[in-house]
Amino acid sequence: MGWPVLSKRVIACLDVRDGNLAKSVKFVDTQDIGDPVEKAKEYYLDGLDELVFYDITASSDKRNIMLDVVEAVANQVFIPLSVGGGIRSVSDATDLRLAGAEKINVNSAAVQRPELISECAQAIGDQNVVLSMDVLKVPVSDEIPSGYEIVINGGRQAMGLDALAWARRGEQLGAGELVVNSIDADGTKAGYELTLTRRIAEAVRIPVIASGGAGLPEHLYDVLTDGKADAALVASMVHYGEYRVSELKQNLHKRGLKIRMSW
To answer: How much is the pLDDT for 72?
Structure first.
C-alpha cells in the first residue's frame, strides 16, 4: 500500500514592511501596496489554504517582528498562519506562536546559527518549523556545486553556501518544511524557477513550497507537477487583483491536481 496523495496547497505571501503590505521585484524597488490585515481576510474568505507573513526588514534592521500586526492578521484568518522575519531564538518563536502563528519561518538567523532550527523544532515541534531559503543562481564552482547559492538579509548578503546542501542540512536539523524562494524569479511573474524547485524537492523528503515568479495559473500547475513542489506560494498575482485565490484553485482542480476546494 502506497502513501496517500496529499492535496497540493496554494499559499499567499504577505511581505510586510513598517506594518504595510509591500512588494518588490528581485528583492529591490519595494513598494507599499496596501493593508496586510485586509488582504489576509480577503484571501481567507476566498478559500486560501495557508498564509505566510514575512516582516521583510526585521533581519536587516536587527529588530524583532511586529507582534501586533501578526495578532491582527491571526484574528482574521482561521487557516495555518506561518510567520517569518527576525526570528533569532526559541523565545522569538514562542512569542509568535502566542500571537497566533501556527508555524514559524527561520531564514537568515538559521544560516548564521543552524542550531536555531533544532532548538525551535524541539520547543514547538518540527512540523511547525519552516526553513525559508532565498536562493540566487550563480556559476557552478567547488563551493557552489549546484549553481544555486543561499543569500540572507533580504538578498543583501551572499553566504557561499550551496542551496541543495543547505536544504538537506535543514531537514536533518529538524525543519518540517522548506520555502524555496528564487530571487531571480521573484516578482517577475514569468514563472517559478522549476529546475531549482525540482532539484531541492528531489533532495529532501519534507514538503517544499515554491516561491518567486508566479504570474499565470499555469505557472502554479507547472511548479506543482514538473517542479515537484507540494505547495505554490503566490503574491503579486493576487495582491494586484489579477487573479483570485478561488480562481487559481479551480484551475488546478480542473487540470486534475488534488486541491482542497471550499465549495
So the answer is: 87
Residue 224, in any domain of the structure: yes
Instruction: Decide if 100 is inside a domain.
Output: yes
Whether 226 is catalytic is no
Residue 40 confidence (pLDDT): 87
Q: Kindly report which listed range (16-20, 58-62, 223-227) carries the lowest average pLDDT score.
A: 58-62
Distance CA 177, CA 185 (A): 21
In a domain, 217, yes or no: yes
Q: Is 186 a catalytic residue?
A: no
Least confident among 19-23, 52-56, 251-255: 19-23
**Tens of pLDDT, residues 109-121:** 999 999 999 999 9
Q: Go through the chain and tell me how many residues it has.
A: 263
CATH number where 99 lies: 3.20.20.70
Residue 259 lies in a domain: no
| Annotated catalytic residue, options 134, 162, 186, 222 | 134
Which listed residue (15, 92, 162, 222) is catalytic? 15
DSSP string, 44-71: HHTT-SEEEEEETTTTTTT----HHHHH
Strands 28-34 and 20-25: antiparallel
Q: Which residues of 40-60 are buried (b: 16+ CB within 10 A; e: fewer)?
A: bbbbbebbbbbbbbbbbbbbb
Cβ atoms of 70 and 99 closer than 8 Å: yes
**Within 10 A of 154 (CB to CB), how many other CB atoms are there?**
24
188 falls in which pLDDT band (50, 70, 90)? confident
The count of domains in the chain is 1
Domain range holding 86? Answer: 9-254
The pTM score is 0.90
